[in-house]
Design goal:
The complex is a heterodimer.
Chain A: E1 6-19, E2 23-37, E3 42-46, H1 53-60, E4 68-73, E5 76-77, H2 83-87, E6 90-93, H3 107-117, H4 123-136, H5 153-165, E7 171-175, H6 183-200, E8 203-207, H7 211-217, E9 220-225, E10 228-234, H8 235-240, H9 245-252, E11 303-305, E12 308-310
Parallel strand pairs in A: 3-8, 3-9, 6-7, 7-8
Antiparallel strand pairs in A: 1-2, 1-4, 4-5, 9-10, 10-12, 11-12
Chain B: E1 7-18, E2 21-33, E3 38-42, H1 49-57, E4 64-67, E5 70-73, E6 76-77, H2 83-89, E7 94-97, H3 111-122, H4 127-140, H5 146-150, H6 159-171, E8 177-181, H7 189-206, E9 209-214, H8 217-223, E10 226-231, E11 234-240, H9 241-246, H10 251-259, E12 309-311, E13 317-319, H11 324-328
Helix pairs in contact in B: 3-4, 4-6, 6-7
Classes of the chains: A alpha/beta, B alpha/beta.
Chain lengths: 316, 332
Amino acid sequence: MTSPILELRNVSHSFSLRDGLFGHKALRAVDDVSLALARGDVLGVVGESGCGKTTLLRLMLGLLEPSAGTVQLDGEPIAHQRRRQLASRIQLVFQDPYSSLNPRRTVGSIVGQPLRVHRVGDAARRRARVRELLDLVGLPARVHDNYPGQLSGGQRQRVAIARALALKPRIVVCDEPTSALDVSVQAQILNLLIDLRSELDLTYIFVSHNLAVVEHIATRIAVMYLGRIVESGPARELFAAPKHPYTRVLLNSVLTPAPRAGIPDIRLRGAPPNPMDVPAGCRFHPRCPEAIAICASQDPEPRQTGAICAACHLAG
Amino acid sequence: MAASPLLEVEGLFVEIDTADGVLHAVRGIDFSLQAGETLCIVGESGCGKSLTALALMGLLPRRAQRRARTLCFDGIDLLAQSPAAMRQLRGNRLSMIFQEPMTSLNPAFTVGDQIVDVMRQHRKVTRAEAHDHALHLFERVGISAAAARLRQYPHELSGGLRQRMLIAMALMCGPRLLLADEPTTALDVTIQAELLRLLADLQKEFGMALILITHDLGLVSRIADRIAVMYAGEIVETAGVEMLFKDPMHPYTQGLLECLPVPGATPPMGRLPSIPGIVPSLIGGRQGCGFSERCRYAMPECAQHAIALRDAGRQHDYRCVRPPEQNRTRAA
């Protein structure tokens, strides 16, 4: 394998929360996560709300400093990279294009903003680059002077993508990029992201709760549960034969069109976990439909079976 | 069709006054529902599906006007009811649950107080009796430590628990019809599956009819008896669930079904078909088919006059100028 473009080594991040009047309690939002991304990969990150997906993204973007471990971009710890340099390597597309664009700025100004901040070229050069970017994401040149309020949801998400691409980053983090959009528009944005990846040789980190979408676009998958990656591997293998019971539950709960098939019984026990109170042993065991005695006492080490790595006593 | 329907809607319009003119959000829709039946209304944002539900409940925003030829529920003419009479109906024989469970609860009262109130509003019961009934329903909808939960405030519950609580609240008086507007959209997939199973079970148990409003076609396929597809304020197609998925007739329905990536069937990274263009403005009048600007089959006449419903047989209707044989050729 060529050297990874993005690598996380034993990364943890804790938030300190107030507990009672004077006490503090640590919430480990990301707990000992390691992963490596090769150039051109599309990493799909899946998991329920509160599992640490957003914290993981913020660590990758250098917006949070890990409490332990290192994040390396292009073989260099991001802690050593300057903000400006980082911004030209890794960029972000947000979930909601209705709140991620400044309503008082024109499309041209929004897309040109990163170029101005980074003082790329002169004004004329920047204008040309903005036109190029709009064209790249499939927006007509006439929207240049429009305000976000005059655009549809899909067009706004295209503006957000153009802005993310302005500095020619190599990695784009997409945080639920289609979940605020209608189904017919979602397909357009997925197509655009897939085209841009091959055109610009991009690497994506793609977070979504929609597993059908993740399966469509991802080459690798990381399944998170309570701050840990419980299973990871190449998308095709993982979706075909998931090793971790939690991954099976997630896949089972996807409602694909199947008339009269009914709602699947996902056999999940108990309530969603409280990240402040992580269970002993395997953190999934109180809800796991397949838990055995050892699961309550011993935390399973990640185990490699073929291409897939799963942290489960029953995997393998 | 032996029994008269539980709900009958004919020629329902919802219009909203805006600064730019009148917005015709719902444009003369008709549908009916039998007791115990599940109807799913599907469509994208702005198609009028939520306003349809609010119009039935008599909960439209002040600037919105409702008119209809028939709006009849359980033998009651909803058009003729006073606001006080509607209040007697809502939460009683007619209940609704909303997408965002947080905004439909009062943050200043415990969930127990709120759920007990619903029943005391409609039934002559003591506080203790209502409380017992709430406890029973909380357990039925899968809320553990129900007695303690009743003493909590809405912000102390997770999103999934709040939605369970709202379902329990909606069931307090044993409604004949439950309207659910995107009840699981704000929730995780695992919780969505659990809640939908619960909703389907409860529906059988209570023998109530369900109108589920959603944009999620996968969900619809699993739970609906009949489906109404809405686009730009009109119902463009209605059919039984098997027919709609097997043999969609309206080009919009066909497009929607094709857009969905289906695990195992759609090639990863392959191009997904999409529907070009955007939803037309609903402000001002419109002639002809609202979908014509985006339709792959559009002809000049599509935009000229109102399109009549066509019967494709077996209670399958769609609103398109093209006959079934022609539209069937592209069916998925």
